[in-house]
Design goal:
phosphoprotein, Sig_transdc_resp-reg_receiver, Rossmann fold, alpha/beta, Bact_response_regulator, CheY-like_superfamily, 5-stranded parallel beta sheet, 122 residues
């Protein structure tokens, strides 16, 4: 059974690249266009990992992480932030909210897959 990974990013091209990378490694991918859409996709199915952008309309990534961590079914779901945001302050906010890793775009697919394989739930 392949593992479900939720990608949350307002950029269709980023979702496409991340999705292709993950599918190529055998993961099942669910896409969301912003934090609010990401929360809506958490409808009870098992999600093994979430990869989220930080800066998005409607609900940003850090707000979404905080909300996910309040959800009983998903509070232990690991979250990787994938963002152009490299500022230490943002990273601290992300970690404080519950993000497990921080990958800065443009990313190397191999590095991202390495982080995914280390963090994805069994």
């Amino acid at each position: 059974m392949s593992k479900n990974i939720l990608i949350v990013d307002d950029s269709a091209s980023v979702r496409q690249v991340v999705s292709m990378t993950l599918k190529g490694a055998g993961y099942n991918v669910i896409e969301a266009i912003d934090g609010r859409d990401g929360i809506a996709k958490l409808d009870g199915k098992k999600i093994h990992l979430i990869i989220s952008d930080v800066n998005m309309p409607n609900m940003d990534g850090i707000s979404m992480v905080k909300e996910v961590k309040q959800m009983a079914n998903y509070k232990f779901t690991p979250i990787i932030m994938l963002t152009t945001e490299g500022a230490e302050e943002k990273k601290r906010q992300g970690q404080a909210a519950g993000a497990k890793a921080w990958i800065v775009k443009p990313f190397e697919p191999a590095k991202m897959l390495q982080a995914v394989s280390m963090l994805v739930l069994p």
